Amino acid sequence: MTTTSAEELLPATRRALLHRIATAQAQGRAPSLVAAVVRGGHAVWHGSRTSVDGHGPDENVQYRIGSITKTFTAVLVLRLRDEGLLDLGDPLEKHLPGTGAGEATIAELLAHTAGLAAESPGPWWERTPGSLRPELADVLGEQPHRHPVGRRFHYSNPGYTLLGALIEELRGAPWEEVLRGEVLEPLKLHRTTGQPQAPHAGGWAVHPWADVMLPEPVEDLGLMAPAGQLWSTSGDLARFAVFLARGDDRVLSAESVREMRTPAAPAEPEEVAAGAAYGLGMQVQHRNGRTLVGHGGSLPGFLAGLMISVEDDIAAVVLANCTSGPPVATVAADLVRIVAEAEPRIPEPWRPLPEVDRTVLELAGPWYWGTHAFALRLTSDGGVTLGPLAGNGRRSRFRAEGDGTWTGLDGYYAGELLRAVEGPGGSVTHLDLGSFVFTRQPYGEGAPIPGGMDPEGWRGIK
């Protein structure tokens, strides 16, 4: 076990992490398992367990990562959007005509709401060569849809094949070549490849009722590659986790990766009960009071999990070389929890704002929507927040637009415009937020309150 940051974890935390992966490898009967933990933007712990005596796998040994590949593909699509080459609301047909699935939007493909089948027709695509599916029609089949477009979440591997084809169409180059030039090289993910490169683990099937193993075939997935082809290491995925939490302007902005992490698909009832949702190429889960984002992956012979708690600034990666075995996504979530609970994040020191717009400062404080008390607060990034003074309710962050207005970033008011309205004398009479009127006093006198005010005003019962 090694650490790669000067800020080492406490010995008790390191032992708890080792115990968790040792239990997972033993109970899950995995030939090997390797893990990494990231905190503060750096890998702070690596651990592994193996059934082979001697040196175990380290952070440079490749494992196949399956559907974590989809997150890489989604990054490429968001790059196209940010460059103005497409809009997520565009139907696929606009950019990639003739697929038979062109009614679905690019956002729906990213979020698995395009109604497409979960798998490709024909023999099990993960254990057969991609040459059996040389055309998109071979991947989609004669009836590609299983549900109406946009109506429900239905995980679809062929949907990400279409996204890979879209990338190739707009970039004029193979998916893997585009990925390497636009994501892997800038992020220094040199051990993430389409084909295995030594040192790499072999994939195994472990018999469910006996401690014996069977080697699994390694296939080139062909057109299905954007859904699950990649090989990577715990070291590379640790760096990728930092990018997914913080963004990197060389690849994708912090705002765009935040968009990827935001739920975009309606969850199925069992997923609602489990606190699960799906964003744009990223899974979203609620476990033990914290929100985790990332992705899981599996292909015959391999299991992979990447989980990030952005709030705790902690991420974990777990890779194993068995077809079924330890629940690696759960193990990764446990590694995040162990560090977050044993060594909670120390807040940054409070500091006053370097400068403040006095006209905005005058807006700070209590406001009333009808009789509901709200507070407007300034934030360190130049924006504001508006939310209930107490209890639950509609609470949102707002971005300053530079013209005296603010745009909602999250919550009920996401995308809505907040503006301060001045009266004839130049003083602010009320805030307007998506037609809602906020006043300094409940139903403030003189403000344009819909329905008007009773002329007798506030009174008790006679």
Automatic annotation (TrEMBL):
Alphabetically list the UniProt keywords. Hydrolase
Q: Where is the Beta-lactamase-related domain?
A: 21-340
A Pfam entry, by short name: Beta-lactamase
Q: Which SUPFAM superfamilies does the UniProt record give?
A: beta-lactamase/transpeptidase-like
Looking at the record's lineage, which domain of life comes first?
Bacteria
Q: Which positions, given as ranges, span the membrane?
A: none
Where the record annotates domain DUF7586, the positions are 356-440
GO molecular function term, any single one: hydrolase activity
Q: What is this protein called?
A: Serine hydrolase
- Provenance organism: Streptomyces dioscori
**Lineage, uppermost ranks:** Bacteria, Bacillati, Actinomycetota, Actinomycetes, Kitasatosporales
